[in-house]
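This protein record is not my work; I was only asked to verify it. Where you disagree with what is written, explain briefly why. This is what I was given:
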Amino acid sequence: MADATDPVIRLVDVHKRFGDLVVLDGVSLDIPRGQTVAIIGPSGAGKSVLIKHIVGLLEPDSGEVWVDGIDMAHATERQKRGVRKRFGMLFQGGALFDSLTAGENVAFPLRYHTKLSESERRRVAEEKLAMVDLPGIYDRPTPQLSGGQRKRVGLARAIVLEPEVVVFDEPNSGLDPLTSDTIDDLIVRMKERLGITFVVITHDIVQAVRIADWIGMLWEGHLVEYAPRERFLHTRKQVVRAFMKRNVTLPQ
């Protein structure tokens, strides 16, 4: 495993199984602060389980999961809740409330985690919508949003509390190539503008190359490669090269 400088998240020899199914088998991983890390791999490789360990929704059978000095594997529920407040999350489908407007969806976390007035919540939500290139849609009914707009509203909500880390679960799932490129560009811009650490779970190596500073690959519960993007693309590990072969032209 390559060590990242100033890791905000560190996994040390994490093991997890469900019955006879081994999902994570000795995974160690450093996620550097203020950079974008993409975790790729086929379905069932353990990507989502890895994320659930980072945010404390699952505990490892053995190993350590550190988030800024707190071991989530042995933290109290109160400590875990405190850590989770520092995370934003963008789900596959956006996970928006259709009964709320676009802006109300963005402002939703502010209602429960801040003491801002309604007018202040609206101001902050409109600011975040502008950041994702959706100015002026605060009052638009959520069912009227396109798939790409829903993803961008979800991104605005994920950053509305100005978290230290934002986690994306297959952010381009179900989107056409042009809309996918728009989402990728937004992720790059948000990292540069806000200094947030992004962790992106994806099976799309093209997206990973576009947005990530570091790329890791899970395969059958093992982190078979983890390195800065250019070094990852020059890997000699055959399982990684075979996975990428159908998606990108590999360096010689």
Notes: The chain has nine helices and ten strands.
